[in-house]
Model the fold of this input.
Amino acid sequence: MRIVAGREAVAMVERLAARGTRLSGLEPRVRRIIEGVRRGGERSLRKYAERWDGLGPKQSLRVSEEEMAAAWRVIPPLLRKSLRQAAQNIRRFCEWQKPGDWMRTHSGISLGQMVRPLESVGCYVPGGRYPLVSTMLMTVIPAQVAGVKNIRVVSPKPPAQVLAAAAMLGVQEFYRVGGAQAVAALAYGTSSIARVDKIVGPGNAYVTVAKKLVSFDCAIDFLAGPTEAVILGDAQSESAVPEFIAADLVAQAEHDPETLAVLITTSRDLARAVGASVTQLAKGNPIAQESLRARGAILIAATREQSREWANCLAPEHITVSAEDLPFIQNAGSVFVGDYSAQAAGDYASGPNHVLPTAGQARFRGGLSVMDFVKIITVQQLSAKGLKRIASAIECLAEAEGLPGHARSVRVRCEHA
Done:
């Protein structure tokens, strides 16, 4: 990892803060796949799945509940126990997070909200390098807690671990398809996969572009890019043990060769110690080494205030801070406080969701949550007295906008009250 200070560090922060999601080059190809599934339905979906997802010519797209149950029986007992423990913690956090109905009354006007679950969602669980059992938990459990009736999971070449997690959660609809073709199937429906109201979950660049392209027809959570890890550390504070910092940077770097891994500190001694520890810990981990070479950096800030400012400018997916720095964090997907809050805890089992905004999107939203699976519907009930109390304001504003019918709809009620 490079150690950068002064004007070079300021320039790097500015460049990283503007990183965004640059995927437009894939749009023409992904658009063709989406249109193929939208027009060709099941036939096109199977064609793409057989070409890219390893689906056999006679194999069913849908994974049977018997196959999921069999996977649960064959995985090691320790993995079963770990899945249960992680699921329990995630479910409890989701219950705490779930919004509720309320109603308030004042001067003849009752106002409130109803919380209603979405009817159907599609949960994308990535294939690729690793069997991401944790993403199954992080997408399905909040949907279940929200009360979503129809949960459809898609994942290419699902291994036994992922199938077992689905069995434990009671998933009924699981389809062995991935990529842009799976996103299109969820967004528009085929003869075997019914369309959904919203698609959630991370994926590769093709999945991300596909979610972008269908987002006018089907709701999505957000566009997730490569993993990001920032650590805010000063030698005199918590979260400043070099081995801990290095371990978190390497852990997140092994996700993807394009991971952003950054330490921000005012201490050159800490910077050098972390740099040496990262080099040692990344040995034998080629993906981590590649990402740390390409997008790893240690930024030396002039002051603690500048460190905090840089952290908020980067708006990272994950950030580790001390308790002293926590009140100053405005932009982050998930915050980890103190020496023992390993970022991997959030990836798996502490409870908060690991599907988090990247590419600076933490400036305007947090991670996936129960709120992504519900609708907040406002409720209004006015008595005659309540309507009269605000009638003049309504009529005045309606006439100012040139909408006399609006004003009349209030006036006629007041005349009969």
